[in-house]
Amino acid sequence: MKKTVVTVIGRDTVGIIAKVSAKCAEYDVNIIDITQSVLQDMFVMVMMTDIAGLKCSFKEFSEAMDQLGKELNMEIRVMHEDIFNSMHRI
Q1: What angle do the packed helices 16-26 and 58-71 form, to 10 degrees?
Q2: 74-80/30-39 β-pairing
Q3: Confidence class of residue 88 from pLDDT cuts 50, 70 and 90?
């Protein structure tokens, strides 16, 4: 299993989780765990995903999520688990 951490931050609106999860499904990315909260009017979500079935390069998926973030006026970041594993080896 190859994992990523996806973070979503921005103004709260209807349908954020639906749109982000639909984009993940479009790329065959499985959402393993999800947590979200609304702090005043700011939406914050963190997802752990499995990209073992990813139909494209990691870069292409990351760019697609970034583009979705722009469309939603939010910031969406995708971080590969290798980043976290490397940080703990230093």
Answers
A1: 150
A2: unpaired
A3: low
* Distance, first Cα to last Cα, the chain: 23
Q: How far apart are alpha carbons 32 and 54 in whole angstroms?
A: 14
For domain 3-89, give the CATH number: 3.30.70.260
Does residue 75 register a pLDDT over 70?
yes
Q: What is the mean pLDDT of the chain?
A: 93
Domain residues of the chain, as ranges? 3-89
pLDDT at residue 89 tops 70: no
Q: How far apart are CA 70 and CA 39, in angstroms?
A: 21
Amino acid in the structure at residue 54: L
Count the neighbouring beta carbons within 10 Å of the beta carbon of residue 70: 10
Enter the pTM of the model: 0.90
